Each structure stands twice: as C-alpha cells, then as structure tokens.
Amino acid sequence: xxxxxxxxxxxxxxxxxxxxxxxxxxxxxxxxxxxxxxxxxxxxxxxxxxxxxxxxxxxxxxxxxxxxxxxxxxxxxxxxxxxxxxxxxxxxxxxxxxxxxxxxxxxxxxxxxxxxxxxxxxxxxxxxxxxxxxxxxxxxxxxxxxxxxxxxxxxxxxxxxxxxxxxxxxxxxxxxxxxxxxxxxxxxxxxxxxxxxxxxxxxxxxxxxxxxxxxxxxxxxxxxxxxxxxxxxxxxxxxxxxxxxxxxxxxxxxxxxxxxxxxxxxxxxxxxxxxxxxxxxxxxxxxxxxxxxxxxxxxxxxxxxxxxxxxxxxxxxxxxxxxxxxxxxxxxxxxxxxxxxxxxxxxxxxxxxxxxxxxxxxxxxxxxxxxxxxxxxxxxxxxxxxxxxxxxxxxxxxxxxxxxxxxxxxxxxxxxxxxxxxxxxxxxxxxxxxxxxxxxxxxxxxxxxxxx
Length: 452
Known about the structure:
Distance between the termini: 48 Å
Number of strands: 2
Mean pLDDT: 81
Radius of gyration: 21 Å
Structural class: mainly alpha
Low-confidence stretches: 1-18, 21-33, 439-452
Number of helices: 21
Largest sheet: 2 strands, antiparallel
Order of helices and strands: HEEHHHHHHHHHHHHHHHHHHHH
Shape: globular
Helix content: 55-70%
C-alpha cells in the first residue's frame, strides 16, 4: 500500500508531461506521413501506448526492461498492422525506419557500454580513493563534486562526466542519496548544454550549421540551475551520509590507467570534431563517436587490460534505453508548433520522458529557435526523470536503486525546480533571441516577432 502511494507522484508527473506533449503536437500529428489511425480525445493511439509504457517504467521499476520492450513491441505491431511507418507500410517501412535510426541507436549502444568500461578504468586507477583529500570535509564537498561534473561535461561527453561523478561519489560517500544521483545527472546535462562538444543535442546543432556561439548563452540558465539544485542536494547528501574525512598516506594512484581514461575521452572528442570538420558525410554512415571510443579501448589494452565484464553487465540497461529511444522515434510528431519560448519550455518537460535527440532534430528542421535556450531546455530537461537522458541511464546502471521514477522525483525534485528557475533567469536577462532558419531551404513558421 505504501509503495502505491509513493507511486502516485511519479504517475501523475509522467501523465502530466505526456499530456503537455500531446496537447502541443496532437493537432499536427496526422498532417503527413503514415495513414491516420485511432485516436482518443484527439490523441493518436501511439502516444497513448508510449504513455502507458512510460507509466509502466515509472511504476514497475524492477521490470523496466520488460516494460520497455513490451511497449516497443505493441507500438511496432500497431503501426505495422494499422497506420504504417514514416517510411512506408509493412515490413519494408519498418526496415527503412530502423535503417534511418541506425546511427543514433548504434552510437548510444557503443557509448554507454564504452563509458562503462571507462568508468571501471578510472575506478581501478585508485584515483577516486584519493578524492577525499581534495574535497572539503563538509557539505561543500558534495557541491564541489557536482561542480567538477559540470566542468568536465563542458568539454567531454555528458555520459562520461556523469559516470566519473558516480564513481567518485561511491568512494567519498558510504551511501549515495538518490537525490544526489539526480544532482550528478543534472550537473552533467547542465555542463554540456552550452557546449557543442558536451552533449549529443548541441553537437547535432553544430553539425546542422548552428554556430557554437549561438548556444553558449545556455550557461546563463545552466549556471543558475546549478546553484538551485547543487547547494541543497549537497547539504542533504551530507546529512544522509557524510563525506569521508581526509585520509593520510600514499594511495598509489595508477597514473597510467588515469592516462588511459584521458586517452579514451580525447579519442571520443577527437573523432567527433574530426568528423564534423573534415568528413561530415561519415556521420551519416557510421557511429563515429562510439567507434572512436572502442578503438581507443582496444588500443589502450596494450598497456592496461579493460574489464569487459562491466560492458556485458550494462547491456540490459543499455537495451532498455534504446527501446525507449526507438519508441520515441515512432511517434507521429511530423511538425512542431511555431518556435517560441513557450514551445522551448514545453520541450524541456517533454524531454524528461521522450528522447531529446528526435525532438532536437525536429526543432532543427523547423528552425527559428533561440538555440541556446533550446539547448538548455532539451539538455537539462532530461534530468528530471532517470530515463530522460543517456547520462541518467548510465548512472542507473551504476546504481540500480536509481531505477525508480517516483523515488527520483520524490528526492530529486530540486532538479525540476532548478530547470524552471534557470529557464526564466535566461529569458528575463537575455530574452528570447530567435534565429532565422539557418539553412536557406527552410521556411518553417516561427514566432520571431514574439520577443521578450
């Protein structure tokens, strides 16, 4: 009985966010593409099935993989027999759709497994055991650790930053509070929101022609949000389980293994930057970043063998995320409402339950957004629920107890508050600064005249 009571906030939150998505897009869903199917109160049945899947994930956190795969199978069956897919009906339509999504899915698969190996390299280096010597012995230590994750994520992938933060937290705290885990994910997503190499969504904007300077002001919102969630969560973590005191002595850090960690991270960033600048066509052919990570892992095995067992143990959690990403890609969201700050704010809440990669792709196709505001919204918004971002799924693989949407919301509600405060801090300091569609062949309707 108690569990069902705790589940109500999670269920209500998922339903509310699904409703905000449906109300924004349902009127546009049948405009193009597949055959019109069934709807309930004007909401296409695909949204209802996906909402039921997300609600099941929120309520049955010990069966998340089963729920996600079952939901994906139901959506595929409905589109196969009733509406058809974006690319066409039947088996050919499904094959074409999955081929279109192959790069995103394979990149996520390789990155999540690769960064699990990377985090074990970092843990085996004994460097995390030395962290209590450089972090303050009070609540400021928790805030400083979140700040470290924020900074790392600004120039590295947010998944790697979150995993490194999770490894360090395990060594400096005897027990890690779930709200603090939400803080680690939020710090990683906030840190990457203003950098075109810090998050998959901002990298997509860069690839599509958005200037890196046009997303930089996302840090106004991200910095404000960090202060809102990091300080209280650092204090609560200290109350929940105090940070370990400084210990004297030689910890014999394996600096070679630390160097391996750095080599893998640099390889990931280098592969991404090189492909973007010199071989952009490769990004449509191969999962460049994921392959770069695994190439570095194999090369580094010459001097330090990786623990591949952690990759195998992370497969199930990774396939869970890929199931949700695939579900999101099957939704009939052919068109977004006109670009405005209200739309951007809504997309932040939507990204907590829908994968932000297809949402970002739709926004880029439409054009006319304030790209910094959008980057913050779709990047940081995914922190509000553990499965809302790749960083959250990666952390939940390290800490299985985090796979509970109602506990995440109950203890990590500071993140949702921080999202709203950060968004309006940016809106009221720099205002809504929309850009004309950055590709000449785009003429989507915008709300540029709605400047505040």
